[in-house]
Design a protein that fits this description.
This protein has about 270 residues and is α+β, with helices and mostly antiparallel strands. The protein is built from four helices and 17 strands. The strands form five sheets. Strands 2-3-4-6-5 form a five-stranded antiparallel sheet, with helices on one face. It has a four-stranded antiparallel sheet with strand order 7-9-14-12, with no helix packed on it. It has a four-stranded mixed sheet with strand order 8-17-15-11, with no helix packed on it. The radius of gyration is 22 Å and the shape is globular.
């Protein structure tokens, strides 16, 4: 899950063709519930490794708050006795919350970060020291891990949905894998989209790029009118795997809506 979140956050910094879309949704109760699930999971993960880091010895319930939206907030600072006596040494401190896209709650802090989910109208806001010691916890891996929940949740608000479907139940080791890609217009209006093909779809197999081509050899990219409720379908063929295992295929359609690309995942079982 972490590599997918990292990939999607990097993607938001890249320039890509964009479709017209409605304004971002307000922070509704369902979104707040998902946000609180994410922050609570991050809190529990930090609590689970607390004993491994001396600078986390005061971390606990007193570090847990709510922001103005009713979304959980983690705010922590620790200063050792040595740090309190030496002004040159900064205390260990960090913060994590989820707030509105326009909020700037930690703007004045050193090491501030913001990671947005524009279709939800929310973003991760927080800060931590730019140069951590090896003995200090880096909170970013926890944000990347649980931020994938928000990235997946955001997909349901896209007017274009992409689905991956199995062509067969299982595949044998060293056998080429086939799967179907479906791009659907889930709105009540017609949309101009780009045809499916190797130029408009990007795939990862268990986090790695893997040779994948449309079974019919389609290049894709040509403009099409996708009517309300209609779909485009195409069979893709991927390279084989040498041994039995369960793999996850991640697919991304290379047209963004407010900086968000339609994505989907599919698990396939490889047997001997």
């Amino acid at each position: 899950m972490v590599w997918i979140f990292q990939f999607m956050m990097l993607l938001s910094l890249l320039v890509s063709p964009s479709l017209a879309a409605d304004q971002p949704l307000p922070i509704d109760e369902e979104t707040k519930k998902v946000c609180n699930q994410v922050i609570l999971s991050i809190y529990k993960d930090i609590l689970a490794v607390k004993d491994k880091y001396n600078d986390l010895k005061d971390f606990g319930e007193k570090s847990f708050y709510q922001n103005k939206y009713g979304i959980y907030t983690i705010l922590y600072e620790f200063q050792s006795e040595e740090q309190s006596q030496t002004r040159r040494k900064k205390s260990y401190r960090f913060a994590i919350t989820i707030d509105g896209m326009e909020d700037k709650i930690f703007a004045a802090e050193d090491g501030v970060f913001n990671l947005g989910f524009p279709l939800l109208g929310v973003k991760f806001s927080g800060y931590q020291q730019r140069h951590l010691l090896r003995s200090q916890l880096d909170i970013m891996p926890f944000i990347e891990k649980h931020g994938a929940i928000l990235a997946d949740y955001q997909q349901k608000f896209l007017p274009l949905q992409i689905y991956l479907r199995k062509v067969r139940g299982t595949y044998k080791a060293k056998e080429d894998i086939e799967f179907e890609v479906v791009l659907k217009n889930v709105t009540k209006r017609h949309m101009i989209v780009k045809g499916l093909g190797h130029e408009t779809l990007f795939f990862l197999f268990d986090g790695q790029t893997w040779g994948t081509q449309p079974a019919a050899g389609n290049k894709g990219g040509e403009k099409k009118i996708l009517r309300a409720g209609e779909s485009l379908n195409m069979i893709f063929k991927g390279e084989s795997f040498p041994t039995a295992k369960e793999i996850e295929i991640f697919a991304m359609y290379r047209m963004s809506i407010q900086g968000v690309n339609p994505t989907s995942r599919l698990k396939i079982q490889i047997v001997e």
